[in-house]
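pinned: reference chain
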Amino acid sequence: MSNEEKIGLAPLVVGTSKILVLGSLPGNKTIQANKTSDSEDVQENSVPKYYCSSSNRFWKVVAALQGEKTVPVEYSEKIKLLASVGIALWDVYKRALREDSLDKNIRKGEINNFSELVELLNENPGIHTIVFNGKKASKAFSEKIRYKLLAELKNRPIKFLSLPSTSGANRMKTDVLIQEWLGKLENV
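pinned: its structure tokens
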């Protein structure tokens, strides 16, 4: 994909979630996996497919949270895994220009609709922790949304955690990355 506008995905909430993981913007392989075969448009009214690149270690982290060493192949099984650990998914950016899948190349990013985030949290009162998958997501959220969200949800404690990116571009060894995520999320 060239230096074109990349469009994010709808939130994915399954079961009773307690953690909302916010990435920055889907990578090219994930964007492609969410398009219909005969169209360049993201599929409407379908379950969004997150973290589709085989180099991204997100699903390894989620499997480890459940005590599993292997990641399910079928996406429907990955969704069941998400539900079992109480994780919902979304991204900070609604759209942005990016020439590849690297966060450092995101330009002219538009943050997801604030009122949609508040609505998602109000519809899912069990979510008490927002986890940022990488520094870019954390920084963009903190600059644009964090304090406004805290003011809106003033009577609801929300914990924020910034964790290392699961992207393959992060050179942290997989076992160290998994331990970092497990260590921060085990008591959440």
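why pinned: The helical segments are 28-33, 58-65, 75-85, 114-123, 135-144, 146-152, 174-185. Residues 4-185 form a domain with the Uracil-DNA Glycosylase, subunit E fold (CATH 3.40.470.10).
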